[in-house]
From TrEMBL:
The species this protein was found in: Peromyscus maniculatus bairdii (Prairie deer mouse)
Annotated family: Belongs to the CTCF zinc-finger protein family.
Annotated protein name in UniProt: CCCTC-binding factor
GO molecular function per UniProt: DNA-binding transcription activator activity, RNA polymerase II-specific; histone binding; RNA polymerase II cis-regulatory region sequence-specific DNA binding; zinc ion binding
InterPro entries associated with the record: Znf_C2H2_sf (IPR036236), Znf_C2H2_type (IPR013087)
Length: 632
DNA sequence: CGACCATGCGCCCTCTGCTGGCTGTTC
DNA sequence: AGAACAGCCAGCAGAGGGCGCATGGTCG
């Protein structure tokens, strides 16, 4: 506030205020000089007590209100405070004669406590009015026509004419004027405080001019003023008829926010929100409130008192408005706020406002840590968890934590819940746990593609991926890869490639350690593992009947047909390889059962005899056998 | 001045849908 | 073995519903 920016005022102000607050001061109760108790009270909370009672707020365009207090300063005080008197040059436009007798008196003094630091800020003015010349009772209305560099004074009340005298034009004070003498005894030795309304409004459009109206409150306005209860000063009565600026209905503008009101009582109530004064204490928690109504509503939250019960359900509310809204949401479905761009309608205007952002793309809530901006505060708050790592939601069963409640809810339902609903694809009967994944499934597998995709194995083409996959599965057991040089055929292309090398003699895979060559990469890999990897632990398949071990599961199955025909009958219905165990090379005996080994296929020992076996590794095995072995 | 009502803001919630990492299966 | 694939899963954001509460307008 501008008042806070004013150099430290003299104690004089405080004294004036204290005097003013004295109840029953007859002079203050007279009409003509009115006070704005509540406004002052509001300001007092924020400003220093000795500062000018000045409230300001830009309201609408250029319209502002200054609430001033008439103060009386000696010239010395003015200088001490870095202030100055306004110069009062003569103006031809409003020639007013100053009575000689009044030469001892100062001209109506308007102090510019500060010049406008910003265009948006208004003047901060104090007015000193010599009561000997024009008692406050007589000062009813003045209009100051303010130009950028000059101020013209026009009196609307003829009573002021002789007193305003030569001060018909005011300019910002000049330093050379500040030594202007004050009248003997100074103005208002009693230090009486006067309150005037100064309303600053734009003059006619197009003119760089403002009209500042300084007036006392009319009788009607006095009644609108906050009750003098605080100070014990009763409302003043006046015999003067109410005076209002012609054609200008009074508007009260809050200096602390954008609020304005034509009713002083509303304005007064509003000003309380800028005050820390909370006289109504909750006896249960000692929380303080500004009004009895707020306190009552608060106490109701303690006691659970909800006097407004919904007639259609068990809900009850503290206020009637909550009940009305609840009924609209739950029962009447009345949605008065409709979007002009779509069919959306809402119960609350704020919801419509939020909805419209989805049309405009407006994102007023900017993340301070990344480029994200959201359309409402909650989304931003939720988003901030991505930066903080906060996971406020915990699964009650497994204590896993989640960033959003919905995520946890899905987790609980699908991990710990019973009869979890599944989602079945309408096209292929695939069951998928999550609807969103079903959507992905539909998008990937059942979306019609404009481009026909060919089968890998035949000329058939499909526009849907799912149909293609189903079709290709029909080729699954076909030995569709046939050798052109013999009758060999196989299911996998890589097997055919390896087979063809038996015709060409090509062995492109070489062991760098022993210079052996292999037709298939997999054979080289097996070779390296068996012969050159000291950490290699072979897989052994044991016959539980006789204890023989086999390196290959298929050999074990063949063995069991002879060794245990009954077991074999049972085993045919089972899958898996239950007799599998791993055995290290050092275990020797079990591993050394050569009879159990498929002759000439694999050996674990090193040396010359293994070369022959190693050779047969490449020569004797079919492609499928090798891959089967690798897989196992 | 309090009471009542309307309004607006903020908060929290649910539902929804997309995304990308993970994992098991298939080829 | 390894690539491709499809479902699982958590993370995250969009949209909107619902309510608590503060505040303003009006009236008695």
């Amino acid at each position: 506030m501008a008042a806070a920016e004013v150099p430290v005022p003299s104690e004089h102000f405080t004294q004036i205020k204290e005097q003013k607050l004295k109840p029953g001061d007859p002079e203050k109760e007279e009409g003509g000089v009115q006070r704005m108790e509540t406004q002052e009270g509001a300001v007092e909370a924020e400003a220093e007590p000795c500062q000018l009672q000045e409230i300001r707020v830009p309201v609408e365009s250029d319209r502002r209100i200054l609430t001033l207090q008439a103060v009386h300063l000696t010239s010395q005080e003015v200088h001490l405070q870095g202030l100055g008197w306004l110069s009062v040059p003569h103006t031809e436009e409003f020639p007013v004669m100053m009575p000689q007798a009044e030469s001892l008196l100062p001209l109506p003094s308007v102090l510019w406590l500060e010049q406008e630091p910003q265009p948006s800020l208004q003047h901060c003015v104090a007015i000193s009015i010599p009561e000997a010349l024009f008692p406050p009772e007589e000062v009813e209305l003045m209009h100051f026509h303010l130009l950028r560099d000059s101020v013209q004074v026009a009196e609307e009340d003829q009573k002021l004419t002789p007193n305003l005298g030569e001060s018909t034009a005011l300019t910002k004070f000049e330093d050379n004027e500040k030594d202007q003498p004050l009248p003997e005894g100074g103005p208002d030795e009693e230090g009486k405080e006067r309150f005037l309304f100064v309303e600053e409004t734009p003059e006619d459009e197009g003119k760089d001019e403002l009209v500042v109206t300084i007036s006392h409150l009319s009788l009607e306005e006095q009644r609108d003023q906050p009750a003098p209860k605080q100070t014990g000063v009763p409302e003043a009565e006046t015999t003067e008829p109410p005076q209002k600026p012609k054609g200008k209905p009074r508007t009260f503008h809050c200096e602390a926010c954008q609020f304005s009101s034509s009713k002083s009582s509303t304005f007064t109530r509003h000003m309380k929100i800028h005050s820390d004064e909370r006289p109504h204490l909750c006896h249960l928690c000692l929380k303080a409130f500004r009004t009895v109504t707020l306190l009552r509503n608060h106490v109701n939250t303690h006691t659970g008192t909800r006097p407004y019960k919904c007639g259609d359900c068990d809900m009850a509310f503290v206020t009637s408005g909550e009940r009305v809204r609840h009924r609209r949401y739950k029962h009447t479905h009345e949605k008065p706020f409709r979007c002009s761009m779509c069919k959306y309608a809402s119960v609350e205007a704020s919801k419509l406002k939020r909805h419209i952002r989805s049309h405009t793309g407006e994102r007023p809530f900017q993340c301070c840590q990344c480029a994200y901006a959201s359309k409402d505060t909650y989304k931003l708050k939720r988003h901030m968890r991505t930066h903080s790592g906060e996971k406020p939601y915990e699964c009650p069963t497994c204590h896993a934590r989640f960033t959003q409640s919905g995520t946890m809810k899905i987790h609980v339902a699908q991990k710990h819940g019973e009869n979890v609903p599944k989602h079945e694809c309408p096209h292929c009967a695939t069951i998928i746990a999550r609807k969103s994944d079903l959507r992905v499934h539909l998008r990937n597998l059942h979306t019609h593609s404009p481009v026909e995709v060919k089968c890998r194995y035949c000329p058939a083409g499909f526009h849907e991926r799912y149909a293609l996959i189903q079709h290709q599965r029909t080729h699954k057991n076909e030995k569709k890869f046939k050798c052109k040089q013999c009758d060999y055929s196989c299911k996998q292309e890589r097997c055919l490639t390896a087979h063809v090398r038996t015709h060409t003699g090509e062995k492109p895979f070489s062991c760098l350690d022993c210079n052996k060559h292999f037709r298939q990469k997999q054979l080289l890999t097996v070779h390296l593992r068996k012969y050159h990897d000291p950490t290699f632990v072979p897989v052994v398949h044991l016959c539980l009947k006789c204890g023989k071990s086999f390196s290959r599961w298929s050999n074990l199955q063949r063995h069991k047909k002879k060794c245990d025909p009954e077991h074999e009958k049972l085993a045919t219905s089972k899958k898996g390889k239950p007799e599998l165990r791993r055995q290290s090379i050092e275990e020797g005996p079990a591993w050394g059962n050569e009879e159990a080994w498929c002759p000439g296929e694999l050996t674990l020992s090193h040396g010359g005899e293994n070369r022959a076996r190693s050779e047969s590794l490449d020569e004797g095995l079919t492609c499928e056998m090798i891959f089967d072995m690798m897989d196992k």
